[in-house]
Recover the amino acids of this structure.
């Protein structure tokens, strides 16, 4: 049996229900929003608790895993220290050999960028003019190159501009070295039908060159330092009644589309 207070409570609930059902739409929406806001902090707290728990699970790493990572780092540090000691020892031995044999220490190259500002229409593949001159420290016979390889040498210098004679011109002979075989020769004239090819002459008759072998400057002759890429061997043949070997070399630098070059101000000895 329900007691009197229970009947009163049921009557109040029924009355409130009728009132809410008969409220205007906008008033009912506001009431729902107000009631919901009372419980929102509880929902937010629950969500935050789940996020904190997930992050804590990501941060916590098993002790065994941490020990493995620590051991790996220690081994890596030890290896690096060993390599540093070996490098230092090699540097000391290198310095001793240089002092013993009187070799000069190599110095880094100093390059100065320049723009190609003029080509001679009648001599398109033989020379270019750059926008550097004597006021920029340019002098004759400095090597000129790009990131791909040798371009030529400075042949004449003005105050603000300089003339560069290109590889393949008869006035730009280059002492060259075939890296794979050690054979030396002279890179000379360009092929009359293909300006990207130059002749590598005065090679030993026993030189057994193969296509694709790298040709670089040998450092002989006093103009071009050693190690600048010239190109790659295309083919070779015996000349002068079998006394010498001659090869064709395809240049690494594209001399037909030069826009920017670098002048080598200081060279490695």
């Amino acid at each position: 049996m329900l007691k009197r207070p229970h009947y009163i409570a049921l009557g109040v609930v029924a009355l409130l229900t009728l009132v809410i059902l008969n409220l205007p739409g906008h008033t009912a929406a506001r009431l729902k929003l107000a009631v919901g806001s009372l419980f929102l902090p509880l929902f937010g707290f629950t969500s935050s608790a789940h996020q904190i728990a997930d992050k804590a699970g990501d941060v916590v790493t098993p002790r065994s895993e941490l020990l493995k990572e620590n051991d790996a780092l220690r081994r890596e540090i030890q290896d690096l220290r060993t390599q540093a000691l070996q490098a230092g020892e090699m540097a000391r031995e290198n310095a001793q050999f240089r002092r013993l044999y009187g070799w000069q220490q190599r110095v880094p190259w100093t390059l100065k960028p320049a723009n190609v500002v003029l080509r001679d229409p009648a001599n398109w593949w033989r020379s270019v003019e750059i926008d550097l001159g004597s006021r920029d420290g340019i002098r004759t016979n400095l090597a000129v190159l790009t990131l791909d390889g040798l371009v030529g040498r400075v042949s004449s210098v003005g105050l603000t501009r300089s003339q560069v004679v290109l590889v393949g011109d008869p006035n730009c002979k280059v002492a060259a070295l075939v890296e794979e075989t050690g054979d030396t020769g002279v890179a000379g004239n360009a092929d009359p039908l293909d300006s990207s090819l130059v002749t590598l002459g005065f090679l030993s008759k026993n030189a057994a060159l193969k296509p694709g072998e790298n040709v670089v400057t040998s450092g002989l002759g006093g103009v071009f330092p050693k190690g600048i890429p010239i190109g790659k061997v295309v083919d070779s043949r015996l000349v002068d009644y079998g006394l010498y070997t001659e090869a064709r070399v395809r240049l690494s630098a594209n001399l037909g589309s030069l826009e920017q070059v670098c002048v080598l101000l200081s060279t490695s000895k």
